[in-house]
Design a protein that fits this description.
Helix content is about 35%, strand content about 20%. With about 350 residues, it is an alpha+beta fold. Strands 1, 2, 3, 4 and 5 form a 5-stranded antiparallel sheet that branches. Strands 10-11-12 form a 3-stranded antiparallel sheet, with no helix packed on it. The protein has a two-stranded antiparallel ribbon with strand order 6-7. Helix 4 crosses helix 10. About 30% of the residues are buried. Keywords: Cytolysis, Disulfide bond, Glycoprotein, Membrane, Repeat, Secreted, Transmembrane, Transmembrane beta strand. This is Complement component C8 beta chain.
Amino acid sequence: MTAHESYSSFEHSVSREKSKEESFGVGLIIPKLFTFSYSKADKRYQKFASRTKRFSSTSSRFVHAYAELEVAQYKLKRQDLMLHPDFFQKILRLPLVYSYGEYRDLFRDYGTHYITEATLGGTYEYTLVMNRNALEKEGYNFRDVQACTQHGVKIGVTVKVVSVTAGITVGGCNAILEEIGDTTSEKKFVEDFIALVRGGASEHITTLANKDLPNAELMQEWGDAVQYNPEIIRMKVEPLYNLITANTFANAATLKQNMKLALEEFHQETSNCQCAQCQGNGTPFLKGTRCECICPLGHEGTACERTQRTNVPIDGNWSCWSSWTTTGGRQKSRSRECNNPPPRNGGSSCPGPSQETI
């Protein structure tokens, strides 16, 4: 369980970590097979992102907890792989003279990467958004809120005894916990409770995703269901062109080089860096071939352009990567800029490197 004093801190450690997993550096698409971690096209991710993004321009505090259950591992053998006949024939029909359109169709049909290792299981996580002003007015310590939620998960919502570091009482602790599951009354401390569940039976996923803090019994039931309904929670992948070997294809070197070129074009084509900037610190994402924005609280419109707020902190976002250039010898490099948009009004800078060299 981690605590974050601001949305910026929360986003860098949680939201952008999911984005980093999904993007896989330059992008990862595995249609018809698996969705890697939290794809931005995944409705679960979009719901999580939109609900947390609403608080990006507020003084809210965030408590984030994560639990993982691993049930099996998968590992692909390294050599003598048998390719599916349809895939094999598709490769044979590819032109040796580079033509992006036909190679793009290959990626659309079979994806850009294939899985070499995978961990199956389930994950449950929640984000608790707390009203900073209400907590401070009551004299509650943020660490005590963490203690309350930890006790609440272990024994259910009602807490009879709790060890705290400051002045929060058992009654105060219960008041916070009861607000988490209350969907009808006006809340004082809890601004939102967002749960994200992967793996398990649909009834447990629905209950965990829409309920308050789970008790030990519900978590046990979900864990039992994960054994029979796991999802891929971690994986290692390799580019599809690594399946093209001289043992299988007569023109392997040419085909492989063409696939590498096409992969670069495909990543640029399907990256949300192509989207126009969202206003008001909104987050762009691609939905098919259409760009959309996830807007923070107080902003609306297709580009989050309608708002009453002023001087909103704007976090920086990366431009698309440049093309690879040879820098000397066999090394290649590319770069990107933190200008899509650049950080403004105290917003955070872009995470990650501005240059890559291979």
